[in-house]
Amino acid sequence: MIAPAKVNLYLHVAAPDDKGYHPLQSLVVFADIGDEIALEPKPSGHELKVHIDGSFAPGLDAGESNLVVKAIRRFEQATGLTVSADIRLTKVLPVASGIGGGSADAGAILLLLRQAYAPDMPDSDLEALAAAVGADGVMCLWARASIAEGYGERLTSVSVPAMPAVLVNPGIECPTPAVFRQYDAQGIFENIEAKQLFSSISSTNALIAALENTRNDLEAPAIALRPEINDVLSMLKAQPETAFARMSGSGATCFALCHSDEDAETLSRRLDELMPGAWVRACRLG
After folding, report:
1. Which of 36, 45, 90, 159 is the most exposed place for a label (fewest CB within 10 A)?
2. Which domain holds residue 13?
3. Residues 133 and 198 in one domain
4. Do 210 and 250 belong to one domain?
C-alpha cells in the first residue's frame, strides 16, 4: 500500500490556546508518490517484526517509538487482539520534512490492520486511533483533499483539480516542535480563516489565484531555523515552469505547482542538476 505524501497548499496557524495547542486551518492535498508499506499476517505467537528499507531508512528506529509501531499498539489496545505479523516499510519520503511521512505510514498500517483483523471496525473508530498517533493522523489516514481545522482533525472534503507538481527537500530535517517554538517567539498571529476561497475551484489557475491570498505561517520561522529553505523557494520561483511555490507544513520540503506534467518533469530534471544532493520528485497532487 502507498502511504502518500501530504502537501499543505496553505497553512494558517493561530496563537496557542489555553491547552498550549495551535488551532489551524489548511488545505491539504496528497501526492501520487509516497512510502510503501506491506503487512504479512503470521500464525499466533509470531513476534511482530518491522523491517525498514529504502532511501531514508538509515537511522530510523523500528521499535516502539516508530509511528507504525505506535499505530499497531493502539489498534491492539482498541481491539484486544495481538498482531502477529511481518511489516515492511520502504521509506521513499524524507524524514521530518513537512509532508506527513510518518503519519501517512501510520494511516496506511491502520487501514491494512482493519482489512486483515477487524473488517467491521467503523471508520470513526479507525479515525480515533489515527488521531491518537499524531496531529496529521486523520488527514493522512484517508489521504483526501480537505480543509483541515481544529488541530488538524476536523476535515471537510473539497474538490480540487489534479495538479502537476514538483516536491523539493534540500536534504535537511526540520523538526516541527522547534518550528512552532520559533513561530510563538515571533508573536505574530493573523486571522486563519480562508476556506471560503476554495468553495468552488475548477481549474489550476483558479486554485493558484486563491492560494495567492493565503500563507504558510510556519514558513518564516522554518526559514529562520533552516535558511536553506529560502534558497529552495528562491530557486523554484525563478524557474519558468513554476506557476506557484511554497513550503509545505513545517518544512523543509517545498513544492512548485505547474501547468502540465511536461513542465513538472522538465522542472524536476533541471532542479536535479541545479541542486545536487536535494531530494526532487515530480508528481501529481489531488
Report:
1. 45
2. 2-156
3. no
4. yes
